[in-house]
Design brief:
With 214 residues, the chain is of the alpha/beta class. The chain has helices spanning 14-27, 44-52, 59-62, 73-80, 86-97, 121-128, 142-155, 174-186, 204-213, and strands at residues 3-7, 32-35, 38-40, 65-67, 102-110, 114-116, 119-120, 132-137, 160-166, 191-193. Helix 1 packs parallel to helix 2. The model has no long low-confidence stretch (mean pLDDT 90). The chain has 9 helices and 10 strands. The strands form 3 sheets. Strands 2-5-1-8-9-10 form a 6-stranded parallel sheet, with helices on both faces. Strands 3-4 form a two-stranded parallel sheet.
Length: 214
Amino acid sequence: MSFFVTGTDTGVGKTHTVVQLLRLLRSNGKSCAGFKPICCGDRQDAKRLLAASTHGLTIDEINPLWLKTPAAPLTAAQIEGVNIDIEYLLNAFRKFRARVDLILVEGVGGWMVPIRSNYFVRDLAVKIGLPVLVVAKNRLGCLNHTLLTVRSVQAAGLRCAGVVLNRPVGDNDIAATTNADILATILDVPLLPELGPEIAKFSSEWSRFWGSSG
């Protein structure tokens, strides 16, 4: 099954999660790719997705809109004088989806990042229509940000397929050591472990998740 991957914030590990999933899927013989509709600033995220995806794709297929300003798409577009064409992004997604069996769409920043003045990442995800994976950073504030994002996904009429909790290196404070247990008791969606670069196969949690997702 394909997914839209969003974050509770920027810098929470969306690209890391997508890259690891793509590597694992490909190691299991799947034709799959990452799709980053919008990049702001550099294009490193899209390059990492390209490297992890099925061969034969191009960077412009992976990432159809590249804004050079490192800011939210609305801000970057205003600075650069660009009119973001939503239908262009959706058409690029439809063409790209026909190239592979499984696609992981990575949003830009968090769930409510503005793309246009009245159009947000949430709205793009609704148009794309895939189940949503939420990526969160395991730190103080994680509980609030995760619950707000999950409930907003569900309120938008989309299925929240699960939450991926990434732990910052060396962070062992009380929040980081208790967030997973608390989220497991208050979420009504699967809580999934971080995918580290050394993992060569799906963990039991991910295996159950992927099996139940089709």
